[in-house]
Amino acid sequence: MLNIKKFVCNMFQENCYVVSDETNECVIIDCGARSETERNGIADYIRDNGLKPRHLLCTHAHIDHNFGNDFIFTTYGLRPTLHKADVCLYERLSEQAVYFTGSGYESSVKQPGTLLEDGDTVAFGCHEFKIISTPGHSPGSVFLYCSDEKTAFSGDTLFRMSMGRTDLEGGDYDRIIDSLTRITSALPEDTVVYPGHGPKTSIRDEKLMNPFF
Ligand SMILES: [Zn+2]
Ligand SMILES: [Zn+2]
């Protein structure tokens, strides 16, 4: 069983998730925690539930999903694990911060952790996430998919009744449509999907109601 706790972070209302199982190991997905309050909320949850963070997983390297990297590295010693095609974006997080927020962001976590490819798996506790490459919103955007629990984290590729923008650097409309077509036919319809912004959804609901399909 997975326990999924959502923390809404920063001015972009980004969803950071802490996902744990019965072993009390956990992964942190997309830590966008920017303020002290946001960071304390996540740290308190992990401490109060006796969780042991094993990975910081990053669905893609946009700044709104990475404001909290320093905090996670300092607190738990974890560097962000991300797809290798987003390393270029990762190296320019501070430029992204200036562009999107008007103020800089100096990360001390210059080097990412493990670089991922399509089909890789990331294990924690008695579960694992399969990495499914879904380029389009960014070149290295991924779905994190736990087949045992029919649960997926979609980053900014798929939102409830919508999809991610493709007008940012490295974005590609045709590729995101291709990714969405592929992912919705590959995953079971009762897969619950947790996006990088907004409420959760399911593959079935998106196939029925998402205007982009
Ligand atoms: Zn994004
Ligand atoms: Zn985002």
UniProtKB/TrEMBL annotation:
Can you tell which superkingdom this protein's organism belongs to? Answer: Bacteria
Q: Which residues are listed as membrane-spanning?
A: none
Instruction: Provide the cofactor list for this protein.
Output: Zn(2+)
Keywords of this entry: Hydrolase, Metal-binding, Zinc
| SMART domains, sorted | Lactamase_B
Please give the CDD domains that the UniProt record associates with this protein: metallo-hydrolase-like_MBL-fold
Pfam families, sorted: Lactamase_B
Query: Which ranges carry the Metallo-beta-lactamase domain?
Result: 13-197
Metal-binding: present as a keyword of the record?
yes
Protein's name according to its UniProt entry: MBL fold metallo-hydrolase
Q: Which organism is it from?
A: Xylanibacter caecicola
